[in-house]
Amino acid sequence: MTSDAHLPVPDPELLDIRDAGISRTSLERFGVAVWTEALDWLYGEAMMRPILRESYPDSRRRFFGPSNEPAPAPDVGSPADAVLAEFRERVAPMTFNAQFPGAFSYFTPPPLAMSIGGEVLAQWLHQGVDVWHAGPIGGLAPDRRRVGSGLMGCPHFRWCDGEPDGARGGSRHPPCRDPR
Q1: Residue 82 φ/ψ region, left for φ over 0, alpha for ψ in the -120 to 50 degree band, beta for the rest
Q2: Number of structural domains, the chain?
C-alpha cells in the first residue's frame, strides 16, 4: 500500500493557507480569477439564453466526450486555472440561466450579489452550529430561526421548534404545518 502524502499537489499555496506570506497573494489571485470567471459567465452565457437548446443525449455527449461516460477520478488534482477552464468549457454552457430576462419565471430567481458574497464568507468561516466550540456565533444568533421560518412558509413567523410557552420571548403555537 502506498501513501499519497507525497503526491504532487498543484497550487499548494491554495491548500496550505497557514502562512500569509506564502499563500495570501495566490489566494487573492485565485479569488479574482473565480470572480472574473463568474462575471464572464453572467454577462456571457447567462445573458444569451435561459437554457441551451440541446437534447439530453447531445448534452451528455458534449459534456462527457466521445466515451459518453464519466471519466474515472484523477489520481492527482488539477491546477486552479485548469479547473476554471473546465468550468468555462464544460459546465457554464450547460446551466439554466435564471439571470436571462426571458427565463422561466417559476424557476429559482437569480441570486443577489450580496447573497453570493455572504456565501463566500460563510464558506471561509465554515461554522457548524451543533457544538458551541465548532461555531460559537451560531449560539449567539438565535433569530436565524425567525428568518428561516418566515422563508419556509411558517404562517406564524414565530419560533417553530416546539419550545415551551414564553421561551425566547415567543409564544407557543401550533406546528408550522398548520395551514392557517
Answers
A1: alpha
A2: 2
Predicted TM-score (pTM) above 0.70: no
pLDDT in tens, 38-50: 999 999 999 998 8
Contacts 24+ apart (CB under 8 A), 65-72: none
Each residue's pLDDT tens digit, 108-122: 777 789 889 988 988
Instruction: Quote the cell numbers at residue 54.
Output: 440541446
**Of 107, 126, 145, at which residue does a domain stop?**
126
For residue 36, give its domain range: 1-126
- Residue 115 burial by CB count (10 A; 0-12/13-18/19+): exposed, middle or buried? exposed
Q: Which of 138, 110, 113 is nearest to 125 (CA)?
A: 138
Q: Hey, what amino acid is at 132?
A: W
